[in-house]
Design a protein that fits this description.
16 helices, alpha+beta, 8-stranded parallel barrel, 714 residues, glycogen metabolism
């Protein structure tokens, strides 16, 4: 093989179409690319000085099968393995599956992996960029010089790879790409990178997976029972960066290690069953709260390394808590170092902004119809469930994925192939993701944040549904918040805002969410939403929480709401923990703790969350008094009768009861322990054989103002 000067210049200028076909050992001749070197030798059983062809490119004859290189610049000499002397790491099966878009364990092949290859330690880099003319990996290890480590293209899959010897876990890197026209693009972070620098720095970081040894096998074997539709599920939604801060250390957020102790213990003490994390996938902008991710395969470095995040999940499991990740496959930011125009084309997104741009969020939309993109996202779901043992994924903004005209006016969207508004490709992706998740990780759950009446969100895929386990009940949330924000004088005119949900509450498997979205952007805090004097605000909020916990549906509460934070949530500071010095706030927290305990320990309050046999109205129509009475029940267990008096008027009120005998008052939101006036029924009532409404038995009870009381047979 003879190396022409033109070919050598193409190598040093990083414009050669196939550098691996020339560089390395071919037909008894070594060609080495060492920019900046004055001299280069090939070393083996004997040493051979390579001749410069052009500055930075050296060539010479070589009779052995292996070699390494020595280079000199001025007075400095160094030895190294030639990255162009190594065979490919990826095989034909990988190439086929990636090209077909069916590689469910994509993260095991793409990204940066510290491995031993051909007996040498180093890092294997692989990235999908089918329309690039050239791809290089750059970092401190090569002076961020795109000429030094140019990747080889693997067949027709669009994947590029290289093994770089001598670098290790912790190395910073990015990809330098030339588009099809030969233009150098902005440096890109790794789409399948497992770690990243602290923002605002943007480089990916080589991180090893599997460094934490999980001790949660007992939890994983039984979690299916803890997450099925008849189980008590009560979720504490958390933004890790603002839950609590360390003011003795500059006001920094807690580390994963600290969260594994402080947050996990707190959530356990409060009686919640799950922690739901606002997105912790790596994101450049703090103000996005994680909802504009760049590194879908990297837990944010803001709280520690990947193995420390795994430690946090493990700690939760050891305490019997599930961990749900808020997952964002619905959009991604336009940052130059992210997926936008990754190889110079609209690769991950649609080229047409009518399909590929979210006007609401100024973000881009994945092209779910491209098999490699849907594979990238589906594999990411499995990655979190398998590598980090997460118990569920809450999928953000599902409505925006389902409809092509989401938040768009006429003429601003592109119909599907049938002329309709449904995004058929996104629907298929969600179905495939749910099927793969439930099929690949036993006992997990997926949750849809879906705000429309799209049918079958929680129906199985084989029955035509989307296949989610649960769906946020946004209708219940909006109606109930609207009702409780009203002056009690006018609530009688809006009685149906609390009864309407019962007409559809079993159409899906619902979670009742009072999430972060309800305490930001000028919406005020939960306590601030409540009407009336200050004591009435507390009473209203206590009644609201008790109504939520008693109503059919799993529960979700955002951090700070459990103790009645007055201010809106801000990601820039910790919660107002000092409020717990006030007995009214501590009382509110005690109520939420007791509601969780009662909910978990009382089958009637949770068994029928998603089963219509678990709920029946006793009195749904007393709008004049704003009183609501219903029964919760479970097979083989005592029923619970729930009575809500949602005016500031105390009442002596006859309620129907499903059976005779003494009934215990198991919860009263007006208790002094919760900051109330301590008015009630002295712990018990007696059912008389006096028919009332649909019930053969009844009792006269005392209803404190703005309260919820619950009774169960003694």
């Amino acid at each position: 093989m003879t190396l022409s000067r033109d070919e050598a210049e193409a190598l040093i200028e990083a414009h050669h179409p196939d550098p691996f076909s020339v560089l390395g050992l071919h037909d008894g001749k070594i060609v080495a690319l060492v920019p900046g070197a004055d001299e280069v030798w090939a070393l083996g059983k004997k040493d051979v000085a390579l001749e410069p062809v052009v500055p930075g490119v050296f060539a010479g004859n070589w009779s052995e099968e292996t070699y390494y290189l020595r280079a000199r610049r001025d007075q400095t000499t160094w030895d190294f393995d030639d990255p162009y002397s190594f065979a490919p790491v990826l095989g034909p099966i990988d190439e086929y599956l990636i090209g077909e878009g069916t590689h469910k364990r994509l993260w095991e092949k793409l990204g940066a992996h510290a491995i031993t290859h051909q007996g040498v330690e180093g890092v294997h880099f692989a990235v999908w960029a089918p329309n690039a003319r050239r791809v290089s990996v750059v970092g401190e290890f090569n002076f961020w010089d795109g000429r030094r480590h140019q990747l080889r293209r693997i067949g027709a899959s669009g994947v590029w790879e290289i093994f770089v010897p001598g670098i290790h876990e912790g190395a910073l890197y990015k990809y330098e790409l030339l588009d099809a026209e030969g233009t150098v693009l902005p440096l890109k972070a790794d789409p399948v990178g497992f770690g990243a620098e602290h923002p605002p720095a943007q480089a990916s970081v080589v991180r090893k997976l599997g460094l934490h040894r999980f001790g949660d096998s007992a939890w994983c074997q039984t979690r299916a029972e803890a997450q099925e539709r008849h189980a008590p599920i009560s979720v504490y939604e958390v933004h890790l960066g603002s839950w609590m801060r360390i003011w003795d250390d500059g006001g920094r957020p807690l580390s994963y290690h600290e969260l594994a102790e402080k947050l996990v213990d707190y959530v356990c003490d409060m009686g919640f069953t799950h922690i739901e994390l606002l997105p912790i996938t790596e994101h450049p902008f703090d103000g996005s709260w994680g909802y504009q991710p760049i590194g879908l395969y990297a837990p944010t470095i803001r709280h520690g390394r990947p193995e420390e995040f795994a430690e946090f999940v493990d700690a939760a499991h050891r305490k019997g808590l599930g961990v749900i990740l808020d997952w964002v496959p619905g959009h991604f930011p336009t940052d130059d170092h992210g997926l936008r125009h990754f190889d110079g084309t609209a690769l991950y997104e649609h080229a047409d902004p009518k399909e590929g741009f979210h006007q609401d969020w100024n973000t881009l939309i994945y092209n779910y119809g491209r098999r490699e993109v849907s594979n990238y996202l589906l594999a990411n779901a499995l990655f979190w469930l398998e590598e980090y043992h997460l118990d569920g994924l809450r999928v953000d903004a599902v409505a925006s994925m389902l409809y092509r005209d989401y938040s768009r006016s006429a003429g601003e969207w592109v119909p599907n192939k049938y002329g309709g508004r449904e995004n058929l490709e996104a629907i298929e992706f969600l179905q495939n993701m749910n099927a793969a998740s439930y099929g690949g990780a036993e006992g997990i759950m997926t949750v849809a944040e879906e705000s429309t009446a799209y049918p079958g969100v929680t129906q199985p895929v084989h029955e035509g549904g989307l296949g989610f386990g649960y769906k946020w009940n946004m209708g219940w949330m909006n109606d109930s918040l609207r009702y409780f924000a009203r002056d009690p004088l006018y609530r009688k005119f809006h009685h149906n805002e609390l009864t309407f949900a019962s007409s559809y509450v079993y159409s899906e498997n619902f979670i009742l969410p009072i999430s972060h979205d309800e305490v930001v952007h000028g919406k005020g805090s939960m306590l601030g939403k409540m009407p009336g004097s200050e004591p009435e605000k507390y009473a209203n909020l206590r009644a609201f929480y008790a109504f939520q916990w008693a109503h059919p549906g799993k529960k979700l509460l955002f951090m700070g709401q459990e103790f009645g934070q007055w201010s809106e949530w801000s990601h820039e500071r910790e919660l107002d923990w000092y409020l717990l010095n006030d007995p009214r706030h501590e009382g509110l927290r005690a109520l939420v703790r007791d509601l969780n305990r009662l909910y978990r320990d009382t089958p009637a309050l949770h068994w029928g969350d998603c089963d219509p046999q678990g709920f029946e109205w006793i009195a749904a129509n007393d709008s004049e008094a704003s009183v609501f009475i219903f029964e919760r029940r479970a097979p083989g267990s005592d029923p619970v009768v729930v009575v809500a008096n949602l005016t500031p008027v105390e009442r002596s009120y006859r309620i129907g009861l499903p059976q005779s005998g003494e009934w215990c008052e198991i919860l009263n939101t007006d208790s002094e322990f919760y900051g109330g006036g301590n008015r009630g029924n002295l712990g018990a009532i007696a059912a008389e054989d006096h028919a009332h409404g649909r019930c053969a038995h009844s009792a006269e009870v005392y209803l404190p103002p703005l309260s919820v009381v619950m009774f169960t047979p003694a």
